[in-house]
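Structure record:
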Amino acid sequence: MESSDNILPASQSFQTGSKVKIYPYLAVLLFAGIIYVGCIISPPSLMDDVDAVHAQISRNMLTSGDWVTSRLDGVVYLEKAPLVYWLIAGSYKIFGVHDWAARIPIALSALGLAWLTAAFGTWAFGKRAGFYAGLCIATCIGLFLFTRILIPDAMLTFTTALAMWAFLRALDEEEPHPRVWAVVLAASLGTGLLLKSLIAVVFPVAAAIIYLFVTRQLFSLTAWKRLHVFSGTLIVLLIAVPWHVLATLRNPPYFAFTLHSGPGQYHGFLWFYFVNEQLLRFLNLRYPRDYNTVPRLYFWLLHFVWLFPWSVYFPAIAKLSFQPTDRAGRTRLLGLCWVGFVLVFFTFSTTQEYYSMPCYPALALLLGSAMAMDGPWVGRGTRVVCAISGLASLVVFSILFYVRNIPASGDISKALTSHPAVYSLALGHIEDLTLYSFAYLRLPLLVAGIAFIVGAVGTFRATGQRAFLASALMMVIFFHAARLALVVFDPYFSSRPLAEALLKSPDGTLIVNHHYYTFSSVFFYANRNALLLNGRFHNLEYGSYAPGVPDVFIQDSDLTRLWAEPQRYYLLATGPAVDRLGGLLGPSQLALVAESGGKFLFTNHPLIGSGSP
């Protein structure tokens, strides 16, 4: 058993000022910093799809001075809330427009989330449990995996966790400043609205209401007074309403009373942002349907992966007390309400793998509390980590032995398969891996194998904190192995080499075959707009019908006309489209400029040294 002071009395579990030992916080920040700050460097480059899309939207805001309406290639892009773009643009303003600068806000949000979870856990359970909770969130697979792209979910998770902590502190009878925490609660909700829209309010408010109902405080006047609902609502509105009003005024019509949309229909910002993106998406009726959904069972079970290695301690949570008789019990009960609502909500909605990230801190708090209490299930969990790490190291070194003589020429795209039907899922590209592709990943595999050996040896006989630190160190090394793997995948996931070839070539007009997202990194690294060939669909379709949108969409007939002109044009296309384009224009008319990762850059007038594919 760990020392009995792991779970402190409510009056002693969290104090401010010099009495608080900062070492656990520094340790959590050290682990998180090595991972998240250490992995912002480039390469890997920004990936095609949403990664480079968000980076370019932020640059467009900075250069245009329009901080209200997002745009891609001059087309209004009304899907997302703006705060993540503002933060990335702010990073550009300070550090310059670089891919690593775009990653700084996401990395800092991961560090902030790790610190916040540790502080929440310390307040609720004591310093040891708080440290373990912070360690769980800082080194779990899910947070790392879903911060490799520039999406605001880590920031949303931070505001959700802060709102939940503020909610409990505002209700705590021993809290000397409940009004301050009520303000923090409201500010968290308002900020969340600018990160991920209504879901940022729905999750914490629903979890809080369920908690109040279970603890028989839902109709308690005292509880609602401590939450300062009226003034809190005003704070939420003051933070969130100005942008929503401006976006509505600048993107009319203001009101549209319909639940249907289709090709050629444009109902303005307000309808699209709230009805189409919130209601119809929840009901799986959104148009255009440019997304997929994870099977419900997988969505639940994958949390054993997302919280690994700490998910091995899930069974120990069942031994905890959830009675709201003290601060620890109230926090655990809120965590249960928090996790339960998020998972049930997405059980009845469309979902991606990372949508449940806002419940990670709740799971980390429960895990940290269980780990500090020790017990037989914690010991068994540590043995499971040891076994998994040992088996993983054996598999990794077996693969290295198997591919030792396999040549790895060119880039890794030559060794991958293609499964475009699953690319609308966050992890769809995993199915592209083949055994042959591991020949390109020798260094990342070696580092990963070392990580697993560290985990296996470190947890073999160790228990308690030593075992937890060994597991955390394993994950730090493993995540840097993953970063090395992403560098190898760079030509496949990013089109940066094509952008660099374009920048070195004579001036000309760029044409992108099919979808903007397919070559979004070219738009970022070359910093130019393009004509989109048959590209009026998915994310850009709705905005393409807005008034005043530039005419960037062309058809095959336009391409054949433009390609024959004396003016220079460049054409970006993926490998499967080359035959079709060759049949349309003539293979001899496609002068190759550059090729990378199964993607091609052509021009209509040959450059010195260029040729046909």
User: Anything to note?
Assistant: The chain has a mean pLDDT of 91. The beta strands are 71-72, 75-76, 509-513, 531-533, 553-554, 569-574, 591-596, 599-603.
